[in-house]
Amino acid sequence: MPEHPDKEIVIFITAPGEDEAARIARSLVEARLAACANIVRNVRSIYTWQGTIQDDSEVLMIVKTRKSLFRAVSGKVKELHSYEVPEIIALPIIDGWPDYLHWLNESTE
């Protein structure tokens, strides 16, 4: 597969509920900051926050985009998200079906 100058990434973002996740996901796709955002229900998150262990039900967004758009995606998520410190982490897509990766790049700007 040919190397793209602007690598594709997947961003994981958790949210407290499906409505908030859908609002964020729709905003990212409408702004062409993401080609697609999946929302996975019923994610159980166990983490520390302000010195205590939390055990919460959340939803997970799996956002497909390009590395060059990460800062813009992060800014938009921070603007719309209810958490003080939302999870916004990116992982590289190391390989993929060329037609899908082409669509991902054509769907974002």
Describe this structure in words.
- With 109 residues, the protein is of the alpha+beta class.
- The chain has one domain (8-106): 2-Layer Sandwich (Alpha-Beta Plaits).
- The protein has 3 helices and 4 strands.
- It has helices at 18-30, 70-80, 98-106; strands spanning 8-15, 36-49, 52-66, 88-92.
- The protein has a 4-stranded antiparallel β-sheet with strand order 2-3-1-4.
- Strand 2 (36-49) and strand 3 form a beta hairpin.
- Helix 1 packs across helix 2 (70-80).
- The two termini are 22 Å apart.
- 27% of the residues are buried.
- The mean pLDDT is 94.
Largest sheet: 4 strands, antiparallel
Question: What is the percent of helical residues?
Answer: 25-40%
Gyration radius over CA = 15 Å
Strand order of the largest sheet: 2-3-1-4
Mean pLDDT: 94
CATH topology: Alpha-Beta Plaits
Query: What would you say the CATH architecture is?
Result: 2-Layer Sandwich
Describe the secondary structure blueprint for this structure.
Layout: E1 8-15, H1 18-30, E2 36-49, E3 52-66, H2 70-80, E4 88-92, H3 98-106
Antiparallel strand pairs: 1-3, 1-4, 2-3
Brief summary:
The chain has 109 residues and is α+β, with helices and mostly antiparallel strands. It is built from three helices and four strands, in the order E-H-E-E-H-E-H.
Tag the structure with descriptive keywords.
single chain; 109 residues; Alpha-Beta Plaits; four-stranded antiparallel β-sheet; elongated
